[in-house]
């Protein structure tokens, strides 16, 4: 890996402002070629506890500093992340596989949360409430929740960290974070830059390790951790929630999705095809908001399918470090196997392949960008998130049927719809049981919009003016006169 600043590449965990090697190590590999990139510290429960020991006093001191003071450290961190964006993108692509241009986009997106919450820190306001009794005065204070645990996934190795850590430290909290075992290097580089920005020891602790269940359990069992924030599978989210029940922690959970994308006859075909391509194939389909089920009205179905297949066919697949590549490898064999299973199941039950459908000639975990038509609700893909580059088209005739099919899922994270009819836009947006509805666009994420889901997709909202509330407690102060 060629970096302008090789000191960004850390392989030890970052606890209480120091780099901790531990006794054993685990390999991080490049999914594009299977090469081992680094041997990273394999830590566990003992180090999580040591990190919490450090975080508790550090948090108290951090919370005492003014919001303006905390914001200045964060602003410096933001500047350093942006100044090192090229290197961070190279690290990200090498450990995760997404095309370098997408990695650069993620660095800017990830950094935007640091910038945003540095500002939000200064706008945390309690209230003076109108009193119902003349001899009392009623106030609210907003105070940091304390030390929080964070567990993040591999698909956005930078942004999923900053979306949690930035609001937390802005609010005056400290964290113990476990990054995904596939992508610890991005997390450690962020810690290096936070340290350079002047973030005090113990505020952002990063524990790397292979034994995620032990690390998670130790965080959840510790009373001193007052909140867990997690992005990943619904299954693991449930485990963390159960494990946090005894200490009654506040939870933020960003879990699985099964995004519907609805294209109505009155859609602008160009916008619908472009939007579907962006939503479906970004990150090789490995995001929890990627369109999983594409419902297309019968009048526009054939034209849309043809155009989508042409655009899909034209996608450049390869190593994310190669210029012009638009789709990298799938993260690992397990991910690849699920994609294959979904395609085989669909074809076995009558789906038609317009393009793709099998592992790519490049080998490894590369998979062909794929379009399937004639999909039906008895196919596995209808219920489960594929997390891969497979566009699956379902035909519908009636708006109510389309809404019912879209809502027929245990998940409720993101939904998309394409229509030029204003009344339909509002009607369908209101009827969709999803936390996010994107209209006539395939991309909606920014630091300003609240990100989060309904039903089994999770709890809480990240980013936006609401995101910092997840890390604050409201204290009611009643003063007798
Ligand atoms: P994915 O399919 O994206 O890998 P996971 O939910 O398995 O989704 O992983 C998301 C994060 O949760 C990763 O950091 C992973 O190491 C961690 N993780 C996996 N299993 C557990 C567990 N039992 N307890 C705590 N964290 C876990």
CATH architectural label of the largest domain:
3-Layer(aba) Sandwich
Low-pLDDT segments, ≥5 res: none
The CA-CA distance between the termini, in Å, is 67 Å
What is the share of helical residues?
25-40%
CATH topology of the largest domain: Aldehyde Dehydrogenase, Chain A, domain 1
CATH superfamily of the largest domain: Aldehyde Dehydrogenase, Chain A, domain 1
Q: What number is the mean pLDDT?
A: 98
Bound molecules: adenosine-5'-diphosphate
The shape, in one word, is globular
CATH level-1 class of the largest domain: Alpha Beta
Q: In terms of structural class, how would the helical and strand content be classed? A: alpha/beta
Describe the largest sheet. 7 strands, mixed
Write up this protein.
The chain has 481 residues and is of the alpha/beta class. It has two domains: 6-255 and 457-480, 3-Layer(aba) Sandwich (Aldehyde Dehydrogenase, Chain A, domain 1), CATH 3.40.605.10; 259-447, Aldehyde Dehydrogenase, Chain A, domain 2 (3-Layer(aba) Sandwich). 39% of the residues lie in helices and 22% in strands. Helix 1 crosses helix 7, helix 2 packs across helix 6 and helix 3 (85-96) crosses helix 4. The longest helix has 22 residues, at 100-121. The termini are far apart. The model has no long low-confidence stretch (mean pLDDT 98). It binds adenosine-5'-diphosphate. Residues 151-153, 178, 180-181, 212-213, 216, 232-233, 236, 239-240 line the site of adenosine-5'-diphosphate.
